[in-house]
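Posting this for the archive.
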Amino acid sequence: GNAIRDIFKLLARPEVISFAGGMPAADALPAEQIREITSQVLKDDPVGILQYGATEAYAPLRESAAEFVRNAASVNCSPEDLFIISGGQQGLDLACKAFLNKGDRVLVERPTYLAALQIMATYEAEVHSVNMDEEGMLLDELEDKLKLYSPKLIYTIPNFQNPTGRTASLERRRKYLELAEKYNAVIVEDDPYGLLRYEGQSVPSIKSMDEDGRVIYITSFSKVISPGLRVGAAVAAPQVLRKMIIGKQATDVHTNSLSQAVIDAFLRMGYLSEQLKKSNRIHGERKNKMQEMLDKYFPSNVKYTRPSGGLFIWAELRDGINTLDVLKKATERDVAFIPGTHFFAEGDGLNTMRLNFSNSSFERIEKGVRILGETIAEF
């Protein structure tokens, strides 16, 4: 099971301060624009939107999504190079479906996105982790494990990684691609957070350097427009794209047509630029607030990341503290987070935690971090 989905049951209580999910701020969601667009879409073409559609995409969105990818990731992408998926997570599932047989090996970052581990377990893959520093996966260890395991896939979240918030440097990205070419692996580049940058300069995507179709690039409109619409895009070489589309036909036929049409109109009407300015301002302020409160209330021996964007801060407590126990105590005081062990393929990392800052007010961030600091101090 997915630990985040389990904790969501707890969040039905409004008094609970949640640092658990990866949800955008409620006041950052473009509710009025979406209401306006939905009404217009249903007025213009109700029959077309309510009927079955092509698996590849609602055709206008395939065009506007290709332009989005070109601008967001510097990828030379035509509409035929991508297809539309039901959220970024489906893209990862379809990549695994296309490549993985029972016992095939995959390399992932240590720690990594917990739903990725869940998906890989579904396909009975053998998952091995590569340790990270602040610039990404350690290259010597990555090469050693490529030699040792001959994995089919390397899975990476290079921008504001989930769960750590780290961003891979340009040099690391280049080396990832060089090593993938050397050892004949495919890179799955998961990029839902790249546009959620609050400071510093963006780094070119790995896919933008890919000359032989070795990288599957997955992005999503969940974090930049709306997670509830469940729309993303995957870019891959033609033979890989075809396999992923066949996999999608067997999964959900096609992504929700109304959601696709809404995203297409949102992009074409030029709303995205202002939406990003608004959401990045809100989220950036909340990130700074959480860091300020962590500095104030957490014990001095707790280490935590200071990301330049994204939605998460990663904390590491001293050895011997189990954050599963911390969570139990914290929830008794109505504060929730995700224990870090769920993000480790090997099931360790018991002294770590992931904190989401985007979906809480300043007041709730201060109160929640204070309670967490007091709870950690008890251990």
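Residues 302 and 317 are 5 Å apart (CA to CA). The radius of gyration is 20 Å.
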